Records
---
Amino acid sequence: MPTLLSFDQAPPLSAPLRYFLTAPLFAVLAGVLLLYSGPDAFASRWTPTALALTHLITVGFMLQVMLGAMQQLFPVVVGANFPRPLRVATLVHASITPGALFLAAAFLTHEPLLFAAAVACLVAGVTFFVVAAASALRGLAWTLPIVLGFKLSLIGLGVTVLTGMLLAVSLGLELDWPLLELTDLHLGWGLMVWACILLAAVAFVTVPMFQLTPEYPAWFSRRFALSVLASVVLWTLADLAGLKSAATLLTVVIVVLAVVFTLVTLRLLGQSKRAKTDASHMFWIVSMVSALAACGLWLADGVVDRLGQWQGRPALFGVLLLIGCFTSVMIGMLYKIVPFLVWLHLQNTGRGHVKAPNMKQVLPQVRIDRQMLVHQLALALLLLAVVWPRWFVYPAGLALICASVWLWLNLLCATAVYRNQRLKMGIVIQ
Amino acid sequence: MRQSRTTIDARGLEPPEPFELTMAALESCDASQSVLLLLSREPYPLYRVLERNGYCRETRHRLDGTVEVLIWRETP
């Protein structure tokens, strides 16, 4: 059994908040880059702008939110304590933030020194996080779906960073390494073993808890993460051995697993006991529908010839998956996690003498609803920009900036409530 | 021996409602009473608060997945 948390071991609020408050700024940078580059941004997945945009979202936004959420969720949902949580957060955040900036700048300039700096920062930050997280999870049963998901996703993160490091070294030093194969491995492990398994593990707990749905079926939650890992390992081996048919078949298996996850989640969301759907519920639906569309696009690629020849296909897949699926669900979760954390920490500060404001007072629903609408508008415009870049790329860039700034302001609003209430409580308790 | 028990079925309630209901129940209980909390998963943040406030607790897992947390005041 996990050990009990004592108050002193509880991660300070600033530990996860630094990640959550930094992440939207990278999405703002992505919007600015989109405006700067104009209609050429989606011309190909290999352009410097497309690569920089992708990594501003994946490393700048997603990695920040995922690491912050893991550091906060471990003690709350599985009773696993990070050793020295504030020090871990400080070092990891101070490494991955410049790392993401260096990486985006390296793609745009092709400067070897920037690639080297990005690799050094990201490898250091992620290694430190993985070691600390593994230490926190040590001793917890692998049979619990969420623990299994956390552990396997850390392996996925490690492989993603390792392949990313090889790619960056190869690009920086202009080495003759198999870039296409390495990129496939980097994508497969990053999207499926790191991001998808982590998303599913968190969903197994937070969807029933916050969306008031039935629990995920045991047959699914126990087997999903291992099935994804086994399929990706086999696909990797087939790919490295040059067995093209086997590798293609295994990619279909992997995509079908993702489809099953989205369908099970959508079915559960449909069974929610909520009297009225709130923004976080909508974010989950948008996320799962986007993931389903991305999977459909992937599967259709092999069947519909015209789709395979269309240059915008990788960009459409990227927007659906990164902005539609992952960014949406992460924003939805931030709107549950941050007010909950503020409430929890104020409850602790009040020591039972002063009541903490409820979660709706920490972050008013109307602010969340309005930001959600702008985010959905940004997603729709980005999808249109892939098809008609000349018409929609500038509105899409502007909408992405607006949605991300709004998210940042909403999170700042919750932080300000925490700061003000703490001051008031300090006066009352004294 | 505890004389009476208040049961809170918090399965299907959104956080932090189970926590708030438990705290309210504990505040209205005297030393001879206990609170039985039924949840869908273990409430780790609640454990921390219980420990800090001098409460004892015993957790059991039912076969249907329900987590039972029995809480009572530690008597000197």
Note: The domain at 4-73 of chain B is CATH 3.30.110.40 (Translation Initiation Factor IF3).
---
Amino acid sequence: MNDKIIPSVIRFFLFAALQVIVFNNLQLNTYINIFIYTGFILLLPFEIQGGLLLVVSFLMGLLMDVFANTGGLHAAACTFMAFCRPGVLRFISPRDGYDSAGSPTISSMGIGWFVTYAFLLVFLHNLVCFFLEAFRLSEFFFTMAKIILTTFVTVLLLIAAQLLTGKPMKS
Amino acid sequence: MDSFKGYLGLKDANRKLAEENAYLRSLLPSSYIMNAPQLNVSDTMRHQQYSFIPARVISGTFFRRTNYLLLDKGTDGGIKPEMGVITAKGAVGIVKDVSKHYCSVMSFLHKDSRVSARIKKNSYIGSLTWDGHHPLYATLSDIPKHVVFARGDTIETSSYSSVYPEGIPLGTIEETQLDKGGNFFIMKVKLLEDFQKLSYVYVVNYLFKEERNKLEKESVNER
């Protein structure tokens, strides 16, 4: 457990810094607003569950709110994402269950599993985030288009980042 | 070497020019209103209606559904919440929060922003909103069906607002269609101001604002 805490703490600050310094300033267009910090919640080890998971995710969201001047938007979306994580994990669990000492990365779970996992959770996060931001259903299709495009780009970046930095893939 | 120094001094020169512009703008006839038309005790014919505070945009977002800008003037510079922010080419937004040296501005590029605008040629008034698709385009609605206009006509701020001065150009009509009910036009307006390139802006100090708002509120309460 202890050897998982320090990498997680480092990842917390790394993803937060990446979002604040790079992605908050990377203004592409109205359809794509990348929230790369969702990667932190995705990559938390399996052991982190329940209250701890919710609190850690909430803190991440709160930090993002502070830097983006959004009162609770990211905190709400992150907490919702953390709330959904156990359910998503159960929904896509491999035949022989999870190795409780492992972590949800490409190197330990394979790329196909990770794509489904990341896509579902990032989608749920963006769903809450963009609909709370717009706060109206009259722009439903515009908001949905934003959510789907952003989710695709975010997942693509998270995969690329892992392939470039992570351990070699399990064959 | 001299020309290089001149280049470095551009920023300072810009600031000075902006201050000068703000001063000149406050002298414009549109910044004044006639005092009581009858000649009476008042020894000046005109009262100053607006004063302008130059400020620089430090940071901002443009592609969210709710966008904000940060300016380099705060309470020290005489800025208060709910003042309007303009440039020569458009209404930029409304001051939201103010600290000692900075203020945050709710950009026009915001889901809840609404500017009372009129077609310059015939003074028909509608409201300009941002639909969130592109920072260069806005939507003008509530113009009745019978109004005659052409593509490319200028849209400017109306006198209905207690935030923005009258007659600031906002954009040009690009495309029009009728709304669902068929009685009003919905127009796509190309904004003159490119928000992504904003640097110097003017914060509007409407000197009669409280008086106007109070009176408007009173007459609403009576109804």
Note: Helices of chain B lie at 2-8, 10-27, 209-222.
---
Amino acid sequence: MAIAVMLITGIAGAGMYVMKLRADNATLKANQLKLETAVEEQNKVLEQQKKDFTAIMESNKKLNVLIGTFKKDLDDLDKRFTKKNRDIGKLAIERTESIERIVNKGGSNAARCIELASGAEHTEEELKATLKSEINPECPALANPSYVPFQ
Amino acid sequence: MYHFNKILALAFIVLLTGCSIGGEKKIKIFSVEEPRKKLDYPMPTPLQIEEIKWIIITSENANEVFKKLEEAGIDPVLFGITDKDFQVLARNFAQIRQKLQETNNLLEEYKKYYEDTDNSK
């Protein structure tokens, strides 16, 4: 009788041990799965970070180029007023009508530049302009993307 | 009695291990992300600038200019700036235009960055 009880107890113990092992195994498998998912997610994050970095660099480069053109446009504007010690006031006294015409043309070009800067569509004429005589001198980089200034 | 004990022991073992027969259930972990709604504002409407006419007035042509204005039915009055201030005005307008362009460009870049890629989360 005692042997039978011991045997039964032993078998029951073994059964319980196996059950514990199975439970542990399930927990380990779940943990493994979680780890694999975490690694996969981390890889995705790293990949996205690389993409983001490239996009940010490209965007920065584009904006720096744009800011460079701003400086050049302002310098060109100053040059138009002061080139070869030019005095726009004296010129306006001497050649009133032609300066008035130039000023009005310049004003009209500058207004068009503001429209384009605010997102207006380019006209075909503006897009095709390649010669100096065809461009909008107030903002050539903005108004005439096909125009390459002669250095 | 002996057989009864055996049956009882077997039943006990089956009772303890029965749930695990056939292997443990597979665990599936998944997450569903609801993408953030896009702001989706339209880009600002481009400006349509009205043209203004510049009149150059000197001590020599002043009378002629006012006469022409009167003939055209326009009040003979002009709001003037000096040649130096005209240069300043031109420069100020150029700077405003550049700021507008820069802001619009930034807006486009932000839109591209957060909407074209998977950065919208």
Note: Residues 5 and 83 of chain A are 114 Å apart (CA to CA).
